[in-house]
Fold:
Amino acid sequence: MKEIYKLMQDRRSIRKFTPELISDEKLEKIFTAGGFAPSGANQQPWLYVIVDNQQIKKDIRVQSEEVDARWNAERTNAFRNWLKKQEIVENSKPFLEETPLLLCIFGDSTKPYWLESTWISIAYLLLAIEEEGLGTLTYTPGYPDFLNQLLNVPEKFIPQVILPLGYPAEEPPASIRPRRILDAFVHTNRFQDEGKI
Structure:
């Protein structure tokens, strides 16, 4: 078992996967970990929808690429240039079809602190996925509402992220995602007269 700090350090966003299927045992461990997350008033507002049907995965890819094209067209040239520098292809999402399964995560907007709680659960899932030797990517379509209709999920559940899940077919180096130094984001007793961030 990896130490938690090692899990955090080793995790990478994976966009290429092998076709190997994931065992039910591994999936149960991952979902159990997500369910351990703290939540506002212990309401546990997350909903996980597993998609392993090839046609539905294809539909999700097609609709994701359509909404991303619209979303990206509304962004500034500076933002689109930044995407290119990050080697992020604006609209092409083949990983949505090529992965063994997709995990679509929704948050119940009728619950207190649903958004924060759901994303804490997602963070727990990411660590569990790494622990199980699998890979994923936190992908959010520009306009994700189509997921409700496509997956027959009530509108009170707001789509948050799609996690393509599988065994990695790539090993991105740490150097492509350098981390900020602590002094850049850790401040002690910061007051207004100390200037703006």
The mean pLDDT is 89. The domain at 13-170 is CATH 3.40.109.10 (NADH Oxidase).
